[in-house]
Amino acid sequence: MGARPNYMRDSILDVGRETRAATNLWCRVRWAFFVITISLVLSCLARAQEWTWTAETVDPSGTFNALAVDDDGNVHAGYLSPKGGGTKYAFRSASTGKWFTMFVDANNGFVNLALDRQQRPHLCYFPHQTLRYARWDGKKWQSQEIAPESGERDYSCGIAVGPDGVPHVTWYQVKDAANQLYAHLRHAALRNGAWHVRTLDFGFSSGKWSCVRVDPKGVVYISYSAFVDGAFRLATSDREGSWVVTTVEDGRVGRRQQTTPGMGNSMVLDKNGRPNFSYEDEKSLRYAWPEGDHWRIDVVDPDANPSGIISWVRMRTGLALDADGHPHIVYETEGALKHAWWDGSRWRIQAMGIYGPQFRYPSLAISKDNVIYIGYSDPGNESFKVLVGRPVDSHAATKRNST
Q1: What pTM did the predictor assign?
Q2: SS3 of the chain: helix, strand, coil, percent, to 5
Q3: Distance from C-alpha of 373 to C-alpha of 318, rounded to nearest angstrom
Q4: Nearest to 125, CA basis, from 63, 181, 179, 180
Q5: Higher pLDDT, 354 or 399
Q6: Tens digits of per-residue pLDDT, 281-329?
Q7: Residue 170 has pLDDT above 90, yes or no
Q8: 257 exposure class (CB count in 10 Å sphere: 0-12, 13-18, 19+)
Q9: Do residues 341 and 321 touch, judged by C-beta distance below 8 A?
Q10: Using the 8-state DSSP alphabet, how is residue 43 labeled?
Q11: How many CA atoms lie within 13 A of 270 on its CB side?
Q12: N or C: which terminal CB in the chain sees fewer CB atoms within 10 Å?
């Protein structure tokens, strides 16, 4: 005979099996939810963090710096090396990824850089409150002073080379030849061996921050701060030398609290030849571009300068457009070096992990294949370094500058 069924035991086992099944089902549901949640988080992180970053040391000493990437993907840098004797130039080969440096000239001030159509570097810099220009002729550096004996020049200079090979330089003229306070923006172009110099804005303290660009047709664009007037302005010239000055943003109009926009400004021309700008006021990081017959302005980081303390050295932004025409901005806050970019629908901000004392002197360049280069002075040892960001996510995004 077969064993008699134990209904109590079988009932208990059935209950146990049902309980375990329910428990297993609940565990599977929880695990699926966990997996989905993690996947969503990782997906968001992937969209927010689109590059893998590595740091490269260019020079043991470096402060003011400017970067440019040529058509072959080589990186060029001009910078001040306080411990290296002054103005220096660095070159990073696209094929080897190695940095090479060379001495250019004695200097103790700001340095800026631009490339011409032959991909050769040009520099402007301030040795001992004068202004000099240097270019690489293929064999050596050729250097000369701009407007000698015209008075004290200092703070920042802008440089660009037109399609005709003519270099354009902007600067802040502190004093005139009679050693009287001047405080105006000046521009010079080197034509037929002579610098043609003029004052662009006679407003007091105009041009302490300035940037110059030249489009393929030879039109010159100069963005600059008009500090006392509380305005950010753009001067535009054609090849005949006629200038038109417009205000991009007036910090004295339509605001509850007056501000001073235009500090630390940087400019880039988009694929349609239109100027786009990054700059700061007392509190925020801002981005402006033309839309129809007016300027559209985004507040990228409303708390870029929490204390509101203005510093000429720290108020500096670097702007570049990626292959999709999306803007990228580097800047420093009171605690960190940051990278802001437009992802096609909104602005994102990323701290780059560079913390410490202020004055990181950031600069920015982007190659045709969307590799990002961020130059900065390491606050730990004052070396000149470059962060290299290689794209890891190519998700589609709406192009901001398509119209």
Answers
A1: 0.85
A2: 10, 50, 40
A3: 11
A4: 63
A5: 354
A6: 999 999 999 999 899 999 999 999 988 888 888 899 999 999 999 999 9
A7: yes
A8: exposed
A9: no
A10: H
A11: 19
A12: N
Q: What is the pLDDT of residues 76-128, one digit of tens each?
A: 999 999 999 999 999 999 999 999 999 999 998 999 999 999 999 999 999 98
Structure tokens at 178: 């009679």
Q: What is the mean pLDDT of residues 28-36?
A: 37
How many helices (H) and strands (E) are present in the chain, helices listed first?
Answer: 1, 28
The token pair at 112 is: 């800026």
* pLDDT of 21 strictly over 50: no
Please give the full DSSP string across 272-310, using - where no structure is assigned. Answer: TS-EEEEEE-SS-EEEEEEETTEEEEEEEETTSSTT---
Contact call for residues 123 and 89 (beta carbons, < 8 A): yes
**Helices assigned H by DSSP within 299-390:** none
Residue 311, class by beta-carbon neighbours within 10 Å (0-12 exposed, 13-18 middle, 19+ buried)?
middle
Which burial class, exposed, middle or buried, applies to 111 when counting CB atoms under 10 A from its CB (0-12, 13-18, 19+)? buried
H/E stretch holding 375 reads strand 372-377
Q: Could you tell me which residues come within 8 angstroms of residue 66 by beta carbon, excluding any fewer than 6 positions away?
A: 77, 78, 79, 111, 112, 113, 363, 375
Place of tokens 């709406």: 398
Contacts of 152 (CB under 8 A, 6+ apart): 129, 130, 173, 174, 175, 179
Structure tokens at 18: 């049902």
Structure tokens at 395: 């998700």
What are the φ and ψ backbone dihedral angles of 140, each rounded to 5 degrees?
A: -155, 170
- The number of beta carbons lying within 10 Å of the beta carbon of residue 211 is 27
pLDDT in tens, 324-337: 999 999 999 988 99
Nearest to 245 by CA among 206, 201, 180, 196: 201
**Cβ neighbours, 10 Å, residue 144:** 12
53-74 pLDDT per residue, tens: 999 999 999 999 999 999 999 9
Q: What is the DSSP string of 167-180?
A: EEEEEEEEE-TTS-
